[in-house]
Amino acid sequence: MAGAFYKQDMPPKGGYGPIDYKRMMPKRGPSGYVLFAGCIGVMAIGHVAFAYTNRQRKNRLYEQREAFFGIMPLLEAEWDRDTLKQLKHTQEQEAIIMKDVPDWVVGESVYHTKRWVRPRVEDLYFLANSKERREAMFGFNTFV
């Protein structure tokens, strides 16, 4: 050990440079201003698309309503035809049932008026079987 020669490490002439001790993160993504402008742009596009879709929906509903108004007289005529057909059938059944009752007028209105009064569903189907009456009064139902 006596023969070993040690040389101490020394700084270079002029010394070492400054030590970087501050945190240096790489810049990531757009700035806050760019993000804010992007959000405003996306919302503006969304509002324009929303207005365009509302306009299309309004036009479609207008067209459906006009089509319904156009076909409504035909539907009313069909409903009236079905009503008169059922009323005739009911009056025929009433005539058969009440033939032995004196002073019974078949089809006499319960309303004291000369005007046409649309008969209630119960009046049209009171002689029908229960399934047909239930379908006429409540629509198509399936009872489980």
TrEMBL record:
Q: Which UniProt keywords apply?
A: Electron transport, Membrane, Mitochondrion, Mitochondrion inner membrane, Respiratory chain, Transmembrane, Transmembrane helix, Transport
Q: Which residues cross the membrane?
A: 33-52
| One GO cellular component term noted in the UniProt record for this chain | respiratory chain complex I
Stretch forming the signal peptide: none
Q: Where in the cell is it found?
A: Mitochondrion inner membrane
Keyword Cytoplasm assigned to the entry: answer is no
Membrane topology (UniProt):
Single-pass membrane protein
Q: Which InterPro entries match?
A: GRIM-19
First-listed, main subcellular location of the protein, grouped into a coarse class: mitochondrion
What does this protein do, in the record's words? Accessory subunit of the mitochondrial membrane respiratory chain NADH dehydrogenase (Complex I), that is believed not to be involved in catalysis. Complex I functions in the transfer of electrons from NADH to the respiratory chain. The immediate electron acceptor for the enzyme is believed to be ubiquinone. Involved in the interferon/all-trans-retinoic acid (IFN/RA) induced cell death. This apoptotic activity is inhibited by interaction with viral IRF1. Prevents the transactivation of STAT3 target genes. Complex I functions in the transfer of electrons from NADH to the respiratory chain. Accessory subunit of the mitochondrial membrane respiratory chain NADH dehydrogenase (Complex I), that is believed not to be involved in catalysis.
State the family named in the UniProt similarity comment for this chain.
Belongs to the complex I NDUFA13 subunit family.
Subunit note: Complex I is composed of 45 different subunits. Interacts with CARD15, but not with CARD4. Interacts with STAT3, but not with STAT1, STAT2 and STAT5A. Interacts with OLFM4.
Q: What is this protein called?
A: NADH dehydrogenase [ubiquinone] 1 alpha subcomplex subunit 13
